[in-house]
From TrEMBL:
Job of this protein: Poorly processive, error-prone DNA polymerase involved in untargeted mutagenesis. Copies undamaged DNA at stalled replication forks, which arise in vivo from mismatched or misaligned primer ends. These misaligned primers can be extended by PolIV. Exhibits no 3'-5' exonuclease (proofreading) activity. May be involved in translesional synthesis, in conjunction with the beta clamp from PolIII.
Assembly behavior: Monomer.
Principal location listed in the UniProt entry: cytoplasm
Catalytic activity: DNA(n) + a 2'-deoxyribonucleoside 5'-triphosphate = DNA(n+1) + diphosphate
EC identifiers of the protein: 2.7.7.7
Catalytic-site annotation from UniProt: E103
Pfam family, one: IMS_C
Cofactor note: Binds 2 magnesium ions per subunit.
GO MF term set: DNA-directed DNA polymerase activity
Source lineage: Bacteria, Pseudomonadati, Pseudomonadota, Gammaproteobacteria, Lysobacterales
Species of origin: Luteimonas galliterrae
Annotated binding of Mg(2+), by residue: D8, D102
Keywords: Cytoplasm, DNA damage, DNA repair, DNA replication, DNA-binding, DNA-directed DNA polymerase, Magnesium, Metal-binding, Mutator protein, Nucleotidyltransferase, Transferase
Descriptive protein name: DNA polymerase IV
Family: Belongs to the DNA polymerase type-Y family.
Length: 363
């Protein structure tokens, strides 16, 4: 039985800003560039009371909370604090899997410290973060990653929640199915059509039924509804994908986005060159003015060997966008995925996906 922690810094970027500028403390802080196309990177808890959330358009955040203080993000500073927090984690276990700058999984089944329990380790880590960074973190303690992540959100901010093995079933049954990772609005609506609103409702369905309706994701739903998650904490996860994206100052037709694709492709290629692995799949991402998201991807027989090849493939993916010519786009992204070790032979594949509100299809 594993002992897993999920540690999540509280309103991380905004909290760093409030810590470093005393005039911001107690005020609604929104970390974002101002502008019609900007999105919120983080919001303080004072701003969240007005409905401001991460990834929300900055103009909407300003409407919801006119008195908010907008602060441009400073990722160099946030990364420095993140490294500080990571060093605290490593005092207790080498099995640390960062998810982002502000959260990580820790496996403390066999900890480096002599603390008596996973609960005590989580309490100590939170106290050390508070003492050494003047910031707060919340923690979830559970037998696996899935449950630990849910638990860390239970008593936010500056809180902790423990799910013991004997408590798993009672804890999960009343939860909305939306708490299961991967269940977005589209999947939630599909499950509601089957009368599934809670995890308890989901548990009434057999594995075969869920797989027949939802494929491999149905099998995942079946396992999560029973609190099953066998994924280990992986401290040194290899790069799987690299991408760059940009939001236009005004919505553009497909015919006008070539310069941006070239610029983003170069940025992605330079980042990929710093890794020791090889990316094989080229991805073009588009978001329409109506916020519909589309991706077009191609995996050639051999990985792109040069920036020019990468750019050419990215540009060619525009021809697989089958929306009307007068469609306007607010965002474009270019990515490189399917990373493999250099000594692994590539396999040919070709696929496209079209997603809208979390749905997807392959063809």
């Amino acid at each position: 039985m594993r002992k897993i922690l999920h540690i999540d810094m509280d309103a991380f970027y905004a909290s760093v800003e409030q810590r470093d500028d005393p005039s911001l403390r107690g005020r609604p802080v929104v970390v974002a560039w101002r502008g019609a196309r900007s999105v919120v990177c983080a919001a303080s808890y004072e701003a969240r009371k007005f409905g401001v959330r991460s990834a929300m358009p900055a103009v909407r955040a300003e409407r919801l909370c006119p008195q908010a203080v907008f602060v441009p993000p400073d990722f160099v500073r946030y990364k420095a604090v993140s490294r500080q927090v990571r060093e605290i984690f490593l005092r207790h276990t080498d099995l640390v899997e960062p998810l982002s700058l502000d959260e990580a999984y820790l496996d403390v089944t066999a900890p480096k410290s002599e603390l008596p329990s996973a609960t005590a380790i989580a309490e100590t880590i939170r106290a050390q973060i508070r003492d050494e960074t003047a910031l707060t973190a919340s923690a979830g303690v559970a037998p696996n990653k899935f449950l630990a992540k849910i638990a860390s959100d239970w008593n936010k901010p500056d809180g902790q929640f423990v799910i013991r093995p004997a408590q798993v079933e009672a804890f999960l049954m009343p939860l909305p199915v939306a708490r299961i990772p991967g269940v977005g609005k589209v999947m939630q609506a599909k499950l509601a059509e089957l009368g599934i609103d809670t995890v308890g409702d989901l548990r009434a369905f057999a594995l075969e039924d869920l797989e027949a309706r939802f494929g491999s994701f149905g099998a995942r739903l079946y396992r999560r509804a029973r609190g099953i998650d066998e994924r280990p904490v992986e401290p040194n996860q290899p790069v799987q994908s690299i991408s760059a994206e940009d939001t236009f100052e005004r919505d553009l037709p497909l015919s006008e986005i070539e310069p941006t694709i070239r610029r983003l492709a170069e940025k992605t290629w330079q980042a990929a060159a710093k890794t020791e692995r090889v990316g094989r799949t080229v991805v073009l991402k588009l978001k329409t003015a109506q916020f519909r998201i589309l991706t077009r991807s191609h995996t050639p027989e051999a990985p792109p060997a040069s920036l020019q090849q990468f750019v050419d493939i990215a540009l060619s993916l525009r021809h697989r966008v089958d929306l009307a010519e007068d469609t306007r786009y607010r965002l474009v992204g270019v990515g490189l995925g399917g990373f493999r070790d250099r000594n692994l032979a590539p396999q040919a594949a070709l696929f496209e996906t079209d997603t809208e509100d979390g749905g997807s299809r392959s063809r």
